[in-house]
């Protein structure tokens, strides 16, 4: 059976790489005695995959994954057993059994939403922040992207679906960013924040937290909210 679920990655483990997260989950599932289904061959490994990789440095509430199990268990039992052995900062939620011919999560992925907490080194005028965002979203946002063929300019504006200012308190600001995210790529939120700071002529530290992933319509996974 194939089971779909999401794991939570807290801020205390945001700097752990995706590969280490994958290893941690697999070890936790084995420790919990969950009936993982392994691949054939010389070096068997659990049949386990993610909708997308969580970037190092980013925390998240919604890292969806799929795992093949060799025995039937309920989603509730899976979550109870997994969460009983999870390390601090990690937990599993939202589990359900995938219907037959469900397909892969990565193929269904469409967008993701992020909360970005920015701490400016010097206070920024809220009006200037809003005007700068409006100007950026009204035209191209060119960044230099490293590719196999070298560094080339890329317009990130088509990947941005929505940006809003959540709060402004002195030198602290919260942004809500909704961007495209699919198997072949998507919005790099850190690059967008870098471009924003450059336009503002400001310096800041920031933390990115992924709050939601959205998928193609099928009734089982989160879908983009209707505007």
The CATH topology of the largest domain comes to: Pseudouridine synthase
Structural domain count: 2
Query: Largest beta sheet, briefly?
Result: 9 strands, mixed
Mean pLDDT: 92
How much beta, percentage-wise?
A: 35-45%
- Within CATH, the superfamily of the largest domain carries the name Pseudouridine synthase
Strand-pairing-aware structural class: alpha+beta
CATH architecture of the largest domain: 2-Layer Sandwich
**Total count of helical runs of at least 4 residues:** 5
Parts with pLDDT < 50 across at least 5 consecutive residues: none
**What is the H-and-E element order?**
EHEEHEHEHEEEEEHE
Based on Cα principal axes, name the global outline: elongated
Under CATH at level 1, the class of the largest domain stands as Alpha Beta
Which radius of gyration do the C-alpha atoms yield?
A: 20 Å
Helix content: 10-25%
DSSP, total strands: 11
Describe the structure.
There is one protein chain. With 227 residues, the chain is α+β, with helices and mostly antiparallel strands. The chain has helices at 18-31, 75-83, 105-108, 126-137, 189-200, and strands at 2-9, 48-50, 59-68, 90-97, 109-120, 142-147, 150-155, 160-169, 172-182, 185-186, 204-215. The strands form two sheets. Strands 1, 2, 3, 4, 5, 8, 9, 10 and 11 form a nine-stranded mixed sheet that branches. The protein has a two-stranded antiparallel sheet with strand order 6-7. 23% of the residues are buried.
């Amino acid at each position: 059976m194939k089971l779909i679920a999401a794991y939570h990655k807290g801020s205390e483990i945001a700097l752990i790489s995706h590969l280490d997260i994958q290893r941690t989950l697999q070890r936790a599932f084995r420790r919990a005695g969950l009936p993982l289904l392994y691949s054939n061959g010389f070096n068997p490994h659990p049949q386990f995959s993610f909708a997308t990789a969580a970037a190092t440095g980013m925390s998240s509430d919604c890292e969806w994954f799929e795992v093949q199990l060799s025995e039937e268990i309920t989603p509730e039992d899976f979550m109870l057993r997994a969460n009983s052995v999870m390390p601090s900062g990690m937990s599993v939620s939202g589990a359900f059994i995938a219907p037959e011919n469900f397909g892969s999560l990565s193929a269904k992925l469409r967008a993701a939403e992020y909360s970005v907490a920015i701490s400016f080194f010097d206070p920024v005028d809220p009006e200037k922040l809003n005007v700068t965002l409006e100007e950026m979203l009204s035209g191209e946002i060119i960044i230099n992207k490293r590719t196999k063929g070298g560094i080339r300019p890329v317009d990130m504006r088509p990947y941005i679906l929505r940006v809003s200012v959540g709060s402004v308190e002195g030198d602290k600001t919260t942004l809500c960013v909704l961007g495209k995210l699919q198997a072949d790529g998507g919005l790099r939120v850190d690059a967008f924040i870098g471009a924003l700071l450059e336009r503002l002529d400001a310096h800041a530290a920031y933390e990115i937290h992924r709050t939601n992933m959205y998928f193609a319509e099928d009734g089982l996974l989160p879908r983009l909210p209707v505007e």
